[in-house]
Each structure stands twice: as structure tokens, then as C-alpha cells.
Amino acid sequence: MSGSAPGLSSVLVVGTGLIGTSIALALREHGVTVKLADQDAGAVRLARELGAGEEWAPGGEPVDLAVVAVPPQFVAQWLLDLQKTDAARFYTDVASVKALPIAQAVQLGCDMTSYVAGHPLAGRERSGPAAARADVFLGRPWAYCPGAETSAQAVQAVLSLIELCGGNAVEVDPVAHDEAVALVSHAPHVAASAVAARLAEASDTALGLAGPGVRDVTRVAGGDPGLWAVILSGNARPVAEVLEAVATDLAVAAAALRAVSVDDTMAIDRVTELLKRGNAGQSRIPGKHGGPPRAYAVVQALVGDRPGELARLFQVARDAGVNIEDVRLEHAPGLPLGAAELSVQPEAAEVLAEALRAHGWHVP
Amino acid sequence: MSGSAPGLSSVLVVGTGLIGTSIALALREHGVTVKLADQDAGAVRLARELGAGEEWAPGGEPVDLAVVAVPPQFVAQWLLDLQKTDAARFYTDVASVKALPIAQAVQLGCDMTSYVAGHPLAGRERSGPAAARADVFLGRPWAYCPGAETSAQAVQAVLSLIELCGGNAVEVDPVAHDEAVALVSHAPHVAASAVAARLAEASDTALGLAGPGVRDVTRVAGGDPGLWAVILSGNARPVAEVLEAVATDLAVAAAALRAVSVDDTMAIDRVTELLKRGNAGQSRIPGKHGGPPRAYAVVQALVGDRPGELARLFQVARDAGVNIEDVRLEHAPGLPLGAAELSVQPEAAEVLAEALRAHGWHVP
Fold first, then answer.
1. N or C: which end of chain B has fewer CB within 10 A?
2. CA distances from A96 to A69, A142, B1, B179, B196 (A)
3. Which of residues 59-78 of B touch A (CB under 8 A)?
4. Tens digit of pLDDT for each residue in B268-286?
């Protein structure tokens, strides 16, 4: 436990779900006094047992910052209630959409000088306090949306919160925020679900031919439908706009392929055009360390499915002075071995390959 | 080099691209005599230099099996030409669609007793002979489509080929094959491209909020548009059918979200229904070792971005007798550390977590 950050010695977390409890745990690691509240007494108790703080008793001294970690549609009412009782000097929230809670807060007559809307981009496939982790925000973007009325001290309090949690503060307009998460999170989730939905009634033969590509495309479709329905409801119009554009592109591609199937071979150009735009968009997604995508060299090695095989491999890399930037194991279905794909700086690739070969690995 | 397999001592590979050259390399490892042909003399030379075999001289003794590894629309003509000169006793191909080349072969009057259409499911994001690897088929499905006229010896020759390459033979009707790959490969590729295409014109702010979810959904969209246009052209109708269904689901979801945005809150049920079907489909995709998806326990540990950190971690796992089934490094953008997600048998999770903690790792 180190000392508390400047200006942030006590925090109230309202809503001890995954995100609220994770924030509380991160703050506790820095010695911040954390108070916990949730309409579910069991959730508060669990969070407390995890070391996230103590149960909040309304009516005491105002805390420095209240973090409203409840679903988007309940943020404004909580903000109003907390402000009425002077629960905190400053307020923020963590909802996955920003225009809706801000508009509702204005409508309810909340004090907008002490409130800064926020959104840590730290989703996990699990939910609830038991899945909480203090490190879940490390290096992740944390959007915050100061308005024209917001006081400088309120902004400073939220920046302190983000810093204590290890997040990467990104100032963004609330409408731009919602359009952005529609593009990079909400609409891709629905599209992945639509692709996965086709497999629900597919033959076992078809599933038997599935490979890593479709696994990647559909991985997020395993998320909780109820949780995602709430997220999508809160960002309905921006997500609808993206999905309409995706649906149109797919309908155009389907029509072009229908034309190809009756010998209009030139129609494939309309599909190629979409694939090229896909290339362009995919290449813009930032890679490791948040910078522009950087091309690592990939060294592949066949590894057996035995304890210690990868340990020996990484030991050889260490002895050769090579830092492995990323590793992915591709297991061969039905066989006790797999290919390890080791991402390294391009100049280190040959060094690593030589070292692995010298120690008996098959490096193609 | 071990001895040749029963009944397969010489093979002709026509088309020394990625798949053809990989097959040749796999056969060479078993001592099979391999002849190479390609309309591009440079590709044959490169394959030869990689140790894939010797250049084919037409007019010699028939080989046991000819593997036609050319794009789908050229398979039947090559088959006819090879059969006219008695180049081989049996014939197969490796094209990613099966109904088209079979129909064209019948139409051209090819001998259908000696030909078995085939398709190894071993795509890679790269192409050309330089990317070839003998191990690319290990444990992967390899579809083959015997017809009513196919001789038992022709089937045996293709099964020997699949065995020598380490593939997992899957007998399938050609039309069912094409519908299957439309579902599990071709349509997901186009859908991923359509999602990625939305990012081509997106703001830098939006891209800055991108996380691992959209990276997974769009990864395959980085594939070569020209190559994929050929693949999609050859399977146009089945892919169009899947894309039409996906586009309809997305249009329905978009319309439901539009209704939600004007306060028809019940409309979200139509989105939830799609998300649930997505859950059901996603859960059917086979995991590691080709079996039904098995739940591994995931142990997470924070690792520094330094040479040897993962080596030490795997060493600890080995010393604890724990086999790491899969590993995924999630690097924290902007920070020199990341979270390693280690998949292990559920009963080994606590053993590994304890061992890592005892050696100073932060295991949440």
C-alpha cells in the first residue's frame, strides 16, 4: 500500500459489479479509502470480502469522488440522489455509453459542474464482483467527457482516478464516444453474433470443417446476451447506423455473388472492392502498445503437448537475448503437438530460429 | 526419410503454390518421389530449391497419383489433359470448392473412376511456395468426395496422400462440402471484411478505443482480396445464401435498435434473440484437438516485457508438473507489461496459481 494520490483520499463506488469492484480493488492497492454501495447486499458483502473496501453508510463526510458504476439508464438518477445528500465533492460514472446519461442528468437538473462522464474500455467476457481484478484497466483506454460547465477540479479528480487505475485517459466528446464504441465494439459484437447464429443449425459435417478463422470471427459472440442487450439499448441509434451499413455491404456482396453464379463473372469486382475496404480498415486497428500496427516477424516452431516444452523454448530465447513480443499456440486437432507462433522484432527472427534449431526444434 | 507408403511411391504435383508445395514437402519427408509442374517456371524452381521434388518431364512412366493444385476453375481442364497423356494412375485436386470442378470434369468427359476431388482445410494468410510448410496439414480436416463411379483404388490413393500429409480424412458430398465451407469460412470472411470496412473511414479517436474484440472479429479481413475473390467466385451461390441470411439478421437487429431509440424498449427482445442464437452457434465450434469445446481453466499472470520472463513462468509450470494447454499474451497498450492467459486442465489451475505466486508473480 503506497500513499493516496494527491486530491483523492476517499472514493465511493456505487455498484459493485465487475467494473465497480475492479476500480475499488485498484484504489485499495494505492491506499485510498473506499466505500461500497449496491442495491444487492450480497454483492457488497462479496466485494468487501475481496478487499475492495467497506460498506458505505450514507450521511457521513463527503468523499472526494463518487464512481457511479450502474447500468447506463440508472446513472442520472443515482447522480441526482447522491448530489442531493452531498455524498461526494465530485462525480463520475463508467457506463459504456455517454450521451444518454449526460442528457438525462441535465434533464433531471443534476449539478453538471461536479460531474465528469467516463468509460473505461475494459470489458471482460465474465461479469460480477468475483471476476473483478485490480489490473483490468492497465494501459487500456479510459474515455472521459468533460462538458462546458465542468469544473477543472472535477476533471482533475477523474484524471487522478484513471491514473490510480493505470488507465490511459482519452478526452472525447460524448456523441463521438458513442459513435466510436458503436464502430469498434457494439456493432462488431452483433455482426459476430449473426455469423455465429448461422452455425446454430448447421450440420456436424460443417462444424467439423471449422478452423481458426471462424473461431476468431465469432469469439465475442459467446458474451452474455442479457448484458449486451442493455449495452446495445443504451447506444441504439449509433449501433443501428453501423449495422445498416454492414448489412447493405453484405447484401450487395450477396447480390454480386448471385450474379457470378449465373455467369456474370464481372460482378465479382463488387466483392473485391469490399474485401479491399476490409483490408484498409483492418490495417488501421492499433496493435500492441497502442501505437500504429507494427509488423513483427513470426517464428514458428513445432512443440509437443508435454509439460515443460514451451518453458525450454522460452529459455532458449532468453539465452539468445531475444524478447518474445507475443506468442500464440495453434494446436493441431487430434494430435499431441502444435505450432507455436512467436512474434519478435524482425531483426531478432533469424537469431531465434537459429537458436531453436540448434536445440533440436523443428523451425520450418 | 522413412520408406514410401504402400501404393504411393511417386506423385505429380501440378501447381507449386502454397498448398501444392506444402504437399510436396510432406511427401518428400516420407521418401515419396515427387514431380513438380507449374505454368510459372520460377515457382517450380523455387519449390525445387525448397526440396519439394524435381521438375516434371511429361511423357514418362505414369506416377501413382497426380495432385492438381490449381485454382478451382482450372482443375477440370488440367485433369482432362493429364488423363489424355496417362500422366498418373489416379488423380485428385485441392481446390477450396468441390461441386464446380466435379461438374466441369463430367462435362469435359474426364474419366471419373480415377479421380477423387479433395480439399485440405489448411489456409494460411500468406501464399506462394515460399510460405509452404510440410506440417501445414497436421491434424487438420481434409475433405474428399468420392462419386458413384470412383474406383476403390483411387479412394485408397487419396487416403494414402492424406495420411502421409498428417491430415484428418473427412468424406463428404461435394454439395454439402461447398455449403459447409460457405458457412465456416467463406461467408465469415466476407462478414469480417464488412465490419473492418467500417473502420477504413473512421476517426483516429474511434480506432483509439479499439480492443481485442474487434481485432478478433476482423483478423481474417487482412487476407489477400484477389485470392479471396477467386475462392468466393467458385462458391458463389452457397456463400450468397449465407450472406443474405446474415444481412437479414443484421437489418432486423438494426430496425429493432431504431425502434428502441424512439422509446419502443420492447424491440430489444429481437436483438436479444439474435445474441442468443449467436451463443448457441459459437458454442458448437470445435476447440483444441478437434473434439467438442472443452472448458480449460484460465490462470492469469502479469508478465513484464523483458526477455526471459515467460521462460521463467513456463519453467515454474514445468517444475510444478502442470501442462499449459494454450497461452495467450494480452499486452497492455502503452505499458511494458501484459497479462498472460494460461489455459490448463481445471484440476491443475490452483497448483499453477500457487506455484506462480510462490515465485513472485502477481496472479489475480
1. N
2. 10, 11, 59, 38, 21
3. none
4. 999 999 999 999 999 998 7
